[in-house]
Amino acid sequence: MTSPPTPEGRRHPEPGTQHAPRHRQRPPRPPEAILRRLDLALNNLYPGTTASCIYSILKGPVGGPWQLHCVSAGHLPPLLITREGDTRYLDGGRSMLLGIDPHAPPPQRHRNPARPVHPLLYTDGLIERRGESLDHGMPRLRQHAAALARAHPAELCEELITGLAGDSTDDVAVLTLRLPPRTDYAVETAAHEAVSSGVGLRLVHAFGWPSIHPPPGGPPWSPATAGVRELVDGTLAEAEQRAREVAPRVDVTREVTVGEPLMVLEIESRTASLVVVGSRGLGAFGSLLLGSTAVHRAAYGHCPVLVVRGRPNPTGPVLLAVDGSPAGERAVEFAFAEASMRGADLLALHVWNTWSERAYEGPGDPLNMVVDIDRLREEEKRLLDETLSPWQTRYPQVAVERRLVRSRIRPALIEASHEAQLAVAGARGRGGFTGLLLGSVSQALLHHAHCSVAVVRGKE
After folding, report:
1. CA atoms of 226 and 180, how far apart (whole Å)
2. Whole-model pTM above 0.90?
3. Which of 103, 222, 301, 319 is the most buried (most CB within 10 A)?
């Protein structure tokens, strides 16, 4: 989310008319064309021979939505199995056996919007029984498949063959795969945040070439790279559609930007109120925040960064990791504002242990070899109260649960994220070294939290 673009951001307008490259990769043939060519080949190579065939193509971006494009020549229809145990046969796209009439019109392909399911392909040997019609075998397959809906694909195939074709003398082949559900809802989350904050939504695709080095700020397209333009435009268009479904009144813009993704993230954050990213990608954003100098630069984003991870449509309170440090003050402010906008409670969790005791107050003070647990507990409670009180006055509508826990800090916060819809942490807390860009707590949450995580930098 951002204010109007500035030259500083090195953003580029939508590409204008470009000369098409001389050689374009031929698009894949549709399933019905493949089936037609197989029919002609069978007729030429083995005249008078017939065969059944099923040909399917599964299309869709990572995480969905998926479409199953399927055509069949005299073959039994695929069975679709949902994780809830619902089953149905995929009708349509069927024609006569191969080899009967190669000049017959090809079947129309059937496009099915596939939910997270097992598409199951099988030969008739799986369900045929002597003296029995397929009308009995097909319902029996549905019944067995429904009972195995949550099984691993390999287990599903093995159990179906054992249960249905144990005494079959015919050849049996079974093929299935599991379509994973979407786990990355960064676009929808960003749209919700834009609605709540009353700002626009800017969708940015960072575009870099490992073997081509365009000058910074240069146009993203050239004759050498135009082949992927359709793919990138389609990805952004699909993201814009999802955003408008969630927030139809929000001003949504999209843009392709040249540059290394983390560098682009840092530049975009200069004019944004919030940067929202998914946890997947090139190694997942949490992993990208660790390591090289270029990666560290992302931790210096000029606004809060929200990493979408965990379960979809989470409920529960906003979890605030309270450390009581001056650097964490902005994280406290962000957590209260988010809880207010979301209409959620705030769970302010302060985890302490004997390592919370400072070894000395000044260079001349002796080391404390014995820790007074009761005194330390009271000090940590006072720190929690002093951190929250001003913000509770400012946000009286937010119900706050103060939770003081003696435990290991990172495991306690990760465990608490099970019940939260958002975890908020400062970029760096009281512990560690001043020069570190991300503290161990924020790193642990980015890697292991069970909900989305917002990392908020403190004041310079």
Report:
1. 31
2. no
3. 319
